[in-house]
Design brief:
- The protein has 270 residues and is an alpha+beta fold.
- 56% of the residues lie in helices and 12% in strands.
- The strands form two sheets. The protein has a five-stranded mixed β-sheet with strand order 1-2-5-4-3. The protein has a two-stranded antiparallel sheet with strand order 6-7.
C-alpha cells in the first residue's frame, strides 16, 4: 500500500491533465521508473475515471517510459471508455430531440459530454457514464411523463408504477434518475445543491449559453457558473474522480475563463 501512496497516486495526479510542463514531465518520467505494478496503476486509473488522460500523457513519453504491454492494455481499455461515451452521446442526442425539445423545456446539460466538447481538445479524453440535466422544477413532471411514454423508466421504480405515482414522486424529489431505452442513466435536477440554496436554478438557466457539437445545440452553464459548480460538486464527493482535476485545468485554459467572473459567481453562491 505504501508503494501505491508514494508512487502510483502521485503519478495519477500528475497525468490527470491535458498537457505537462517540462518540470511535470520530468517528474512523471522519474515516477514511471519507480512503478513496479502497472496493473495496479491501470486499475486505479480506470476506477477513478482517469485512464484516458493518463494514457495520453504516458504514451507520449516514448521508449523507456512505460512498458509496451502496459501501454497496450491502457490503449485497449481507453477505447472501451470511448465506446461507452459514444453510447452516452447517442442517448443525450435522443433525449434532447425526443423529450426536451418537443416540450420546450428550458434546461442545461451539466458536465459530461458538453464539458468535454467545450473545454477539452478531444471528447475522448474525458470519460462519460451518464447525463445530468438541470431544469426548472415546474417542467419536471411533464418531462418525466412524456419520457415514460417513449420507453424511458424511472431508475429503480417499483413494479406497477403508473403516471400518478411517477408524478407524486417528482413533486417531492430534488432530483431523480431516468434510464434511457439504450440503458444510459439520465439524472434530472431541480437544483444543484440538494436544496441548500447555494445555486438558484432560474438565474443559472437565464445566464446559460449553448455550444454546437455534432450538429446539435447543447445548452450549458456559462463558464464562471460551471467552474464554481464543479468545485462545489467535486468537493462534496471528495474529489474521488481523477478527471475532475482535469476539468479544472481544462476550464482554466479555455478562452472563456475569467477569474473575476468566477469570483463573482462564487460570492453569489456564498
Amino acid at each position: 500500500m505504501n508503494g501505491l501512496n508514494e508512487v502510483i497516486v502521485p503519478l495519477l495526479m500528475l497525468v490527470a491533465r491535458q498537457s505537462l510542463t517540462a518540470e511535470q514531465e520530468t517528474a512523471v518520467r522519474d515516477l514511471c521508473l519507480r512503478v513496479d505494478d502497472w496493473e495496479a496503476f491501470t486499475r486505479l486509473a480506470v476506477e477513478h475515471q482517469g485512464l484516458p488522460l493518463a494514457y495520453r500523457q504516458l504514451s507520449r513519453l516514448g521508449p523507456g517510459g512505460v512498458p509496451a504491454d502496459a501501454l497496450d492494455r491502457m490503449h485497449r481499455l481507453t477505447l472501451l471508455l470511448v465506446a461507452q461515451a459514444l453510447r452516452v452521446e447517442a442517448a443525450q442526442r435522443a433525449f434532447q430531440t425526443d423529450c426536451l425539445a418537443p416540450l420546450g423545456t428550458r434546461y442545461v446539460v451539466l458536465k459530461g459530454l458538453p464539458l468535454a466538447a467545450r473545454y477539452y481538445e478531444s471528447t475522448a479524453l474525458r470519460p462519460c457514464r451518464d447525463i445530468d440535466v438541470l431544469l426548472e422544477p415546474r417542467d419536471l413532471i411533464p418531462l418525466v411523463l412524456h419520457a415514460r411514454r417513449l420507453g424511458y423508466r424511472l431508475h429503480e421504480q417499483p413494479e406497477g408504477w403508473g403516471d400518478w405515482d411517477a408524478a407524486a414522486y417528482c413533486r417531492f424529489a430534488n432530483d431523480l434518475s431516468l434510464v434511457s431505452p439504450n440503458g444510459v442513466l439520465i439524472e434530472l435536477h431541480k437544483t444543484l445543491d440538494q436544496g441548500q440554496g447555494l445555486f438558484q436554478t432560474r438565474p443559472l438557466l437565464r445566464r446559460s449559453e449553448s455550444i454546437a457539437h455534432g450538429g446539435l445545440e447543447i445548452p450549458v452553464l456559462n463558464t464562471a457558473d460551471l467552474f464554481v459548480y464543479v468545485c462545489a460538486h467535486h468537493t462534496r464527493h471528495f474529489w474521488s474522480h481523477l478527471h475532475w482535476f482535469g476539468d479544472l485545468e481544462a476550464i482554466v485554459r479555455h478562452p472563456s475563463y475569467d477569474e473575476q467572473a468566477v469570483r463573482r459567481a462564487a460570492e453569489a453562491a456564498r
